[in-house]
Design a protein that fits this description.
Blueprint (H helix, E strand, L loop, with lengths): L4 E5 L7 H19 L4 E4 L9 H8 L1 E3 L1 H4 L10 E4 L3 H11 L3 E5 L25 E2 L4
Parallel strand pairs: 1-5, 1-6, 2-3, 2-4, 4-5
Length: 136
């Protein structure tokens, strides 16, 4: 049985980072409204969001990293947007998403899909296989 709903925004040639972030932000904010739970942004480091829709999302919701997550009292069981995660970041984000949902934005060094990358894809061990986020 799955612990959370999982989705991902695949890295694609020609898609800029803000476009990918907008797709993930839209999906997670929809989940947040439907569930009546606050959303959470998880990034590898605090300096990894830049400007645009991800920065706006970070201002509206809580934001944490794997390094700072153990020092905060961020509630679990909430929709999580995880931006270009490494394996550790994805696993920490999955812990926050239990009982809720998670959307991962794939980065060039962190393939989430089958058959990509030399180390293979990262896996959502705490939930079902992720489905691709759409722009709708």
């Amino acid at each position: 049985m799955a612990d959370f709903r999982a989705a991902w925004v695949p890295e694609r040639t020609g898609m800029d980072w803000d476009e990918a972030a907008r797709i993930g932000v839209t999906w997670v904010e929809r989940e947040s409204v439907q569930q009546g739970r606050p959303a959470l942004l998880m990034t590898v480091a605090k300096n990894s969001i830049g400007l645009g829709s991800l920065a706006t999302f970070a201002k509206r919701h809580e934001w944490t990293t794997p390094r700072s997550s153990y020092r905060t009292s961020v509630a679990r069981g909430r929709p999580v947007l995880v931006y270009v995660p490494d394996e550790r970041t994805l696993q920490v984000a999955a812990g926050y998403a239990r009982g809720s949902s998670l959307c991962a934005i794939e980065g060039f060094g962190t393939p989430l899909s089958r058959g990509r990358g030399r180390r293979g894809p990262l896996t959502f061990s705490a939930g079902p296989p992720p489905r691709r986020c759409s722009q709708n």
